[in-house]
Design goal:
By secondary structure, the protein is α/β, with parallel strands linked by helices. Helices cover about 35% and strands about 15% of the residues. Helix 1 packs parallel to helix 2 and helix 3 packs parallel to helix 6. Pfam families: Oxidored_FMN (PF00724).
Length: about 375
């Protein structure tokens, strides 16, 4: 029988438990994406709180493409020394740290009109109104290099791995989705072509960081619309191809936040007011995927009660569980569970931390 506190490994990364802190936009970096003391404290508290592995808030890989204010940067070598300090803080408190890297694209309202925003095709975001320009093949090659260099910087800074963000309506998930990707070249059309940019990013990263540095991906299970979006079948194709190429783990999420219907119907990644029977709401896809690949599947999305996760751990091939909002509310939640305090987390999935300005829980501000 598997246990949440089994000692496991992803590649050469030792895992003290099966819990991840999933990436959260903290809105606490400075205006260039550099660390602040308040942001360092967030990570210190998470590490002290017992979570085995922390995935950072998304870090932008191009200086001219900051999709949101206050997010971390990793676009040049000036970040390496300060991130060494962050990695040391986390390691001192016996947790792992993985950097999530991203190109945001048109799902943004930050500095819109002052910069060129790349997309798989020329299009307008339904939720923000931002326009994207179809990327040329030369620009795609530049972005692939940017991702690879960002990953190498994270390795030089002492991080335990990186995660490619290919979910939630950001650029790489736009390439996967026929809802947005209308290209007629080798980066559009069938799912092999729509996934090509991700496969090439993975291979470029692996070429720079080597075989012993963990590379993960956050992948949409589906877009959340019935017609025209990324399907489960296509997502599984991408996941299996990445596993064959050598990626080390896949964090399963879902919901394309750039699509208006997805937001209106509450089918995005961070859903509100979740009844217990609907927790772990990407579990069906994750269960299906975990049967078909031989690398770890990490489930995110509405993980709340231990008994729900325990059932999945021991009756499926899902190996790890990510939490985001519960650890905003209670950074020490995993330590509580270690000590036998297994009551449900305080988090009620209200989602108001997203509107707080610094990703803080309203329950802690009363």
């Amino acid at each position: 029988m598997k246990n949440f506190f089994d000692k496991t490994k992803i590649l050469n990364m030792n895992m003290k438990n099966r819990f991840f802190r999933s990436a959260v936009w903290e809105n606490l970096s400075d205006d260039k994406g550099h660390l602040t003391e308040k942001l360092k404290l967030v990570y210190e508290n998470l590490a002290k709180g017992g979570v085995g592995t922390i995935i950072t808030g998304y870090a932008f890989v191009r200086e001219d493409e900051q999709p949101n204010p206050g997010m971390m940067g990793i676009y040049d070598d000036s970040f390496i020394e300060e991130y060494k300090e962050l990695a040391n803080i986390v390691h001192t408190n016996k947790s792992n740290i993985i950097m999530q890297i991203v190109y945001g694209g048109f799902m943004t309202s930050f500095n819109v009109g002052k910069r060129t925003i790349w997309g798989p095709s020329t299009m307008k975001c339904e939720t923000t109104g931002a326009m994207a320009k179809e990327m040329s093949k030369e620009e795609i090659k530049l972005l692939i290099i940017d991702f690879a260099n960002a990953a190498l910087r994270a390795k030089k800074a002492g991080f335990d791995g990186i995660q490619i963000h290919a979910a939630h309506g950001y650029l790489l998930s736009q390439f996967l989705s026929p809802y947005y990707n209308k290209r007629e070249d080798e980066y559009g059309g069938n799912i092999e072509n729509r996934g090509r940019i991700i496969f090439e990013i993975y291979e470029a990263i692996r070429g720079l960081v080597g075989k012993e540095f963990p590379i993960l991906i956050k992948l949409n299970s589906e877009d959340g619309i019935k017609e025209g979006g990324l399907t489960r079948e296509d997502s599984i194709y991408v996941a299996k191809k990445l596993a064959d190429l050598g990626i080390d783990a896949i964090e399963v999420s879902g919901g394309n936040g750039a699509i208006k219907k997805v937001r209106e119907n509450g089918l995005g990644a961070g859903r509100s007011n979740i009844p217990k029977q609907n927790e772990s709401y990407f579990k069906e896809y994750a269960t299906q995927l975990a049967k078909q690949i031989n690398i770890p599947v990490i489930l995110v999305g509405g993980n709340r009660h231990l008994d729900v996760m325990q059932d999945l751990l021991n009756n499926t091939n899902i190996q790890y569980f990510s939490l985001a909002r519960p650890l905003i509310c209670e950074p020490d939640l995993i330590n509580k569970w270690v000590l036998g305090d297994i009551k449900p987390p305080k988090c009620v999935s209200c989602g108001k931390c997203y509107k707080s300005g610094d990703e803080s829980c309203i329950l802690n501000n009363k």
